[in-house]
Specification:
Order of helices and strands: HHEEEHEEHEHEHEHEHEHEEEE
Largest sheet: 8 strands, mixed
Bound molecules: 7-O-phosphono-alpha-L-galacto-hept-2-ulopyranose
Oligomer: single chain
Number of helices: 9
Distance between the termini: 10 Å
Shape: globular
Structural class: alpha+beta
Helix content: 25-40%
Length: 333
Amino acid sequence: MKAVTLTVEDTNRAAPAVPDRNIAMELVRATEAAAIRASSWVGKGRKNDADGAAVDGMRAFLSTVHFDGVVVIGEGEKDNAPMLFNGEHVGDGLGPSCDIAVDPVEGTSLTAAGRPNALSVLAVSDRGSMYDPSAVFYMDKLVAGPEGVGVVDIRNPIAENIRALAKAKRKSVEDIRVAVLDRPRHEKLIAEIREAGAGVHLLLDGDVAGGITAASYDSPVDLCVGIGGSPEGIITACAVKGLGGLIQGVLAPRDDAERQKALDAGHVLDRVLEADDLVRGDNTYFVATGITSGDLVRGVERTSRVIRTESLVLRSASGTVRRVISEHLPAKW
Ligand code: VTB
């Protein structure tokens, strides 16, 4: 693998106590690098190679970002993950103290199969503000846009939520679309959505993209529900804070051992985790770059002259949503 060419920006600035707005534009370089690296593996049937390439790219660029990040959600425990493991410090170590969640390839199977909707994502917030989801693999989630705030609730039956959201959005129930991971565990949920008169938007993988689509203004998806990864729930929460929508989560342990692990870690089972429980405060950053094209952004495109990437950059403090299209010179990669 070729060495990554690094440029160090702004490292001489006085360090602010919390991350400021400039960090978002620095962070997007890390997901761009990860997506470009992973894109060489699109459709090649080799998940681990795609992930490894993305991790290398992301880590190299993160090391130049002016912050002291601790990986709260990473590639796993130190023994199994050589890089971006939980607890690892990333960044130049000098700037603001942050938590960071990384998913260099959200959708490794999608990438390996050459299917849509694979993303490289990361989220940053103030140090100590992210919920540690490592005890329980799955979380039941509900994500909606701003119209869903105070209107839908994960405790309510899905049909009731669909009716309430349709009313709030001034849409007919028939026009409501609900994103759900296409899994046998969701058979009943999918049937209930259809019985209510709404339609499903089935996700092969990738409920981060599904959640963001549900929270986005003017998107074809209105709601994202069902059981997916817990870490993805925290990452989605960082994005939802930027979009002003609603997210709720409930840990979904697979068995008694996981239930016990959660209790030992101090979690209260069956508790509804609101956005502020998943990530505290209003200083979250979320960046995602498309690996393959999908509902949110286009994937990496290679022409003879440029490698083009599209990214979404969200900052909750300002509520700014940026779409960044970058053209990279192939010779530099
Ligand atoms: C979930 C979902 C992710 O993998 O973690 C899923 O949140 C794993 O669920 O977005 P299964 O065990 O049912 O496959 C993703 O889809 C990422 O690929």
